[in-house]
Amino acid sequence: MLELPNCPRCESEYTYEDGSLLICPECAHEWTLESDTDKADQSKVFKDANGNVLNDGDSVTVIKDLKVKGSSLVVKIGTKVKNIRLVDGDHDIDCKIDGFGEMKLKSEFVKKI
Known about the structure:
The protein is mostly beta strands. It has one helix at residues 33-42, and strands at 16-18, 21-23, 30-31, 60-62, 66-67, 74-75, 80-81, 85-86, 93-97, 101-105, 110-112. The protein is built from one helix and eleven strands, in the order βββαββββββββ.
């Protein structure tokens, strides 16, 4: 017999299967086993050039001169960026840099302050 997991919401042991769903009779929470593993895979960890974990709102410093695509401007090494926002994609940091405006950066070119 298959051992069913406890409810992730209320920890009730009285869960049951209904097709591909697991249901808790105490709190009426419905979930699938795949959704639990998908959530664990989706929580991407963003790290800077030194391997430090980045979070929304952190301040970082640019570690390499970065050419701004479409212009002749260069973000110089040592430029401080405050209040970053992490996003999915190739450039995983959204930020605002004084003198440049809105910018997207790769986490591999910054270090956490």
